[in-house]
Amino acid sequence: MGIKLAWLVTAQGRVVAWRWDRAEAPDNVFREVATQYEGQTITLCDNGFRETEAPQQNLKYCQRGTWNERFLIETTLSWVTEVFNSKKMYHRVTEHLTARLGYMAALLNCLLDITNGERSLAQFAI
Description:
Helix content is about 30%, strand content about 15%. It is built from three helices and four strands. The N and C termini lie far apart (about 35 Å).
């Protein structure tokens, strides 16, 4: 069983909102993570977030490689995969999986505080 994880990340890399769903869920089920901040910010997202009935003003749809800010997302997701070992989670209870994902978001925010916003963990390898 796989999952999809959607994080709303600030320009500094901090996670401010998140949600997960099963792997076969369409991307646009995660729209509510971003639309709750309508009028406060814009959110860069993939074309999978498009919805024909109700376009949102704060969603900015962009193609791959068009915004440099998307590099921040890729770096954050590599942390999730490499540092937090999220490719191999064996939780069988929804609440346990939700707790682990919440802990990962909180830990990422703490690591950004400790490293003064640097996204490199090389200083901890010494």
